[in-house]
Amino acid sequence: MTMTLDSRQLPPDAAADAPAPSARPSTWRLVRANGAVRLGATALTVLAVVAVAAPWLGTVDPAAIDPASINLAPGTHAPFTDLSGASVDHFFLMGADGFGRDTWSRVAYGARISLFVGFAVAVLAVLGGGLIGLLAGYFRRLDGVLMRLMDGFMAIPNILLAIALVSMFRASLWTIVLAITLPEIPRVARLLRSIVLSVREEPYVEAAIALNTPTWKVLWRHVLPNAVAPLIVHATYVCGSAMLVEAILSFLGIGLSPEIPTWGNIMSEGRVNFNEHPQHVLFPGAFLAFTVLAVNILGDGLRDTLDPKLRRRGD
Hints:
The chain has a domain at 107-307: MetI-like fold, CATH 1.10.3720.10. It has twelve helices and two strands; from the N terminus they run H-H-H-E-E-H-H-H-H-H-H-H-H-H. It has helices at residues 12-17, 27-33, 35-52, 103-138, 140-154, 158-168, 173-199, 203-210, 215-251, 263-270, 279-306, 308-314; strands at residues 76-81, 87-92. The protein has a two-stranded antiparallel ribbon. Helix 6 crosses helix 7 (173-199). The longest helix has 37 residues, at 215-251. It is elongated and about 75 Å long. One of its GO terms (cellular component) is plasma membrane.
């Protein structure tokens, strides 16, 4: 007969030397320990601070036009006349555009539009596509109808569908958000549907169904928790893509009004004098590229941390 000893039956010295049971770190600790997640989150936090604190970061009214400041070079100190007619000594960190507007002020305020569009599209796409994917994956009768609808939307290129929606309605901020969100919903729906189809065959889900557990409880307690991590990762890619599409629409002249400072509008107006003054395009383009890169790095880090297969391979 075999006997087992616990730490209470061992001598004091042996109990002290006994190895402690291995505790697997929590998901939140793994996320915080990932370098890519920290890097991407830090970069996005800095951009968010710039967007929110733009009025206190050496900026002026981004819509103020001063004919005396047209096409000033970056790093120039010069008087600037604002909309009220007051003249102040201003430091043009990124120069001035072809209308005499401070480029740094327009880039800083433009971060608000890009970040808002990116996060709004990501949230709406995940909510809308997640609901459709959940219903299609769990209820077989709805699967065929909903997926054929999603296939029809996916057959239309993203940018063309966005252009059509913006052309039909007034180009307001929420119109832009809606136009970018609709093409992303089918992709989120197909992702969640594939997850639900695999989870619904698990023994614990079948056991819950056999015990007559209400459908909404099965979906809420057993299905959705398995889909949260993939949805979070996919939302980061949707966010980065939405920022690019918004910049494309503004660059093509069918986005927000040119008076509203967005990175796409700034680049669209600066391309006219690109040969003589390339900074009008390079500065907002660099901010856009940096933001999308930060979002993608964050998404890669979350994927590596939250995906059990990739995490097991790293261990």
